[in-house]
Amino acid sequence: QVPPARCALFDPAFSAREAAALEALGLRLLPENEEGKHGVGGSATLFYMVHCGKALYNNLLWSNWSPAALSKLVIIGNSFRGIEERLLSRILERDYSYIAKVLKGTEEVALPSHPRYLDTFNDTSVHWFPLDKLQELPPEVWDFVEEPTYEDCEDLEIIRK
């Protein structure tokens, strides 16, 4: 069991009442919008990011861009394979390059669909990054660590700071 105080939450849409209720439950609210750029800091970390924009996943990968850090995180969120299937490869590589680069180092299992919520949770998967798969990626994958900016991105789904 994970103690509530070790659970950090952030949603820019939290109301003051929601934030107060979460804090009353002993959960820790992150003080600012990190735009998904949250480092794991050497600890195994689960990110629950259902229905988040692609930029949030890309930013999370960027902020943990090393085999050692990525191997410590698990993401429950939109399917990376689904993102790859729905986007033109040039758009994926230009706007969401960290998702594109890590696909071959990712294990992904789709969560089962619920018959009542077929249109809501139909694209949710659990993602993890086994160290041995990450280490098999070409070394140049890890060389480029420029912070994503999304200047040419037409469908940016992120709430900025």
Q: Which whole number gives the mean pLDDT?
A: 90
User: How many β-strand runs?
Assistant: 6
Listing every helix as H and every strand as E from the N terminus to the C terminus, the arrangement reads EHEEHHEHHHEEH
The number of distinct helices, counting runs of at least 4 residues, comes to 7
By oligomeric state, this entry counts as single chain
Compute the CA-based radius of gyration: 16 Å
Strand content: 5-15%
Report on the biggest sheet. Answer: 4 strands, mixed
Placed side by side, the strands forming the largest sheet appear as 3-4-6-5
| Total domains | 2
Q: Spans with pLDDT under 50 lasting ≥5 residues?
A: none
Q: How far is the first residue's CA from the last residue's CA?
A: 32 Å
By secondary-structure content and strand pairing, the structural class works out as: alpha/beta
Outline: globular
Helix content: 25-40%
Domain SRR1-like: 5-128
Organism: Grallaria varia
InterPro entries: SRR1-like, SRR1L
Family: Belongs to the SRR1 family.
What would you note in describing this structure?
There is one protein chain. The protein has 161 residues and is of the alpha/beta class. It has 2 domains: 1-31, no CATH class; 33-142, no CATH class. 30% of the residues lie in helices and 15% in strands. It is built from 7 helices and 6 strands, in the order E-H-E-E-H-H-E-H-H-H-E-E-H. The model has no long low-confidence stretch (mean pLDDT 90).
